[in-house]
Every structure is written in structure tokens, then in C-alpha cells.
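Hi team,

Filling in the usual template for the complex we talked about on Friday. All components are listed, including any nucleic acid strands or ligand strings, so the model treats them as one assembly.

SUBMITTER: L.P.
PURPOSE: interface mapping
COMPONENTS: two
RESIDUES: 366
SEQUENCES:
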Amino acid sequence: MTVTTILGLVLLIIGAVFSLVAAWGVVNFPSPIARMHAATKSASLGLALLSLGAGIAARSWGLIGVASLVTVFLFVTAPISGHLLGRASYLAGQAGPLVHDDLAGVDPAPLHVGELERGRFSLVRWIALAVVWMLLWRDISVGTLGGAAIVATAIEAARSSFDRDTTISPPRFALFLIRYVVMVVTSNLRVAWEVITPSNARIREAIVAVPLRTRSVDTALLVANAISYAPGSLTIELTGDPPVIYVHVLHFTSIEDVTDSVAHLEDLVTQALPQTTPA
Amino acid sequence: MDTVVTVVQVLLGAGVLLALVRAVRGPDLADRIVALDLVLLLIAGAIAAHGARSGTEAYVAVLVVVALAAFTGTVLVARFIEWRDTP
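RESULT (copied from the run log):
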């Protein structure tokens, strides 16, 4: 038993516990959208910890690489699943008792993405795509290198960008990632606490419309993703130009509380992804 | 290590049973899909845990595919529910 093995096994156990929390929440929470909160937050952290823990315990760089890919993939897709299913069950009239509902009667206008433009070639993105390809093959040879070059070039050539003006500020983005991880852990602990203590009477669900100050689609999408990992909130709809996010909250206190926490997230994202031409 | 992995897989199995309870009880299609999506993610977790025990990377591709299939299926059904329920 080395330190690495023990670390991997500890991650495996924590991941399994969070997965179990997600399952218990899916059974126990009173309304469909509350169950999606548990499934979105706890299941993605659970599987991320399980796959990373497995890679570390097996001391296999290939497994750790693919586990990182799966982790990134999960944290991108789980909020999308939660958003689509949440909106679907809201439209089906299954949302449960809401103390405040801004989504009632809103025409679901799609998010305005502007004209799609052919993106400029980015070497960083090209290398990232090639690395993803190599990780999936778990092999470094002439064949996979050639395949990676072909696939990355094809994707770069076919890609259209939403916002050509979005840049990444590496130190701010790193800071945002740290806050993001802390937020994910916090909201998972809170879901676990709510699952263990059967005090579902405290749940006061509401849907609050929060207009964003940004007009950048990239920023809006990242804010919408982060909201789904913030404690007690889930993005349920994202519409319009300028973007408006409809946030489903489990413990509604006041509209200002929701608006303030979203504004705080938006500030973090805007600093991490500065726009070259201010809108 | 084998013991820990077995414990982890038993926990995940218990999670699958719980999620299946919700999948059977419903009441709506969306509830069942949330539960089945979770079942797939729990299975992916158990596959990852098995990878830790065996040390082989043969199951890694399965992990990726299961995670992908879970997401694609969920999105598809969510679109179907909206298509069914909006006049």
C-alpha cells in the first residue's frame, strides 16, 4: 500500500458515497426538479471522483488521462441534461409548487447567438484537440499522431465561433476554476446534508429570471453552467438577447438573494473571459 | 485494495437499486429518465472501480461510451417530452 494507492482508494470511496447521495436524492426529494438538482450535482462529482480515483489507484497515466476527459465532459454535459429535463418537466406542468415563478407565460425565445462566423485558426485549440484524440487512443505512435493531426485540422476548419472577441485570462481563469471546484464541493455537501436530514418541508421552490449584463454568449453559457453547480440552484432556461437566465432555486428567500449570487458568478466569469471589444 | 473496490461497487449497486425505485415509481417520464441516466453513471463508476482493481485499461473505452450514451439519451428524451407536451 503506497500513498498513491491509498489516495486513489479514498477518492473511490468518496465518489461512491456522493453517487449514493445522488441516488438517495433522486428517490427522496419531493419534486421532479429537486431530484434533478441531486442528480446533476452529486452524480457528476461522484463519477468524476470515481474515475480519477481509479486512475490514481491503478497508477496508470492512460486511465488518469481518460478520467480527466470524462470529468470535463461530465461537468459540461450534466447541467445541459438538468436544464433540458427541468424545462421539459416545467412545460409538462410537473414543476411542483412554486412560491415564485418568472417563467410563467414566457415565450421561450432561443438565445441569440448572432451571425456564426468562421473562427480563426488557434494553435492552442488544435493542440488540445490532438491531445484529446491521443488520450482516447491511449497510444503514441505515428498512426495516432497522424490521425490526431487530421481530426484536429478538420474540426478547426469546420468550426464556427460564436464570439471572436472572447479571450481567456489564464490567471483569472485559474482563480475561477478554483472557486468553481470549491463551489461544486460545497453544493454537494449541502445536497448530502439535505438528503440525510429528512426535512423536505424546508424546500421552497421558485423560478427567478435573472438578466445578465454581458452580451457575450460564451460568458452566458459559462454562467449558466456555474449556476447549476452553485448550492441550491439549477439553470432551467436561457433565453433572449440580451441573455436572461431562469434559475430554479430550492430554498427561495428573496429575489435579491438569487440576483446577487448570479451577479457574483457573472463577475467571476467576465474576469476569466475578458472581451477584447467591450460590449 | 480488493476489499475497498468491492465495498465501492456494493455502494454503487445500492445506488442503482435506489435509482431503479424512482424509475419504476415515476410518476412522469422525466423522473424515469433522470433515474435511468443516474443508473448509467453509476454503472460507469463501477466500471472505473473495476479498472482500479484489474489495472487494465481495457474498460476505459466502455467508461467513455457509457458517459456519452447517458448524455445523448437524456437529451433525446428531453426533446421528445417537449415535442410531446407542447401543442
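MY TAKE: Chain B touches chain A through 47 residues (CB under 8 Å). The two ends of chain B are 55 Å apart (CA to CA).

Thanks, L.
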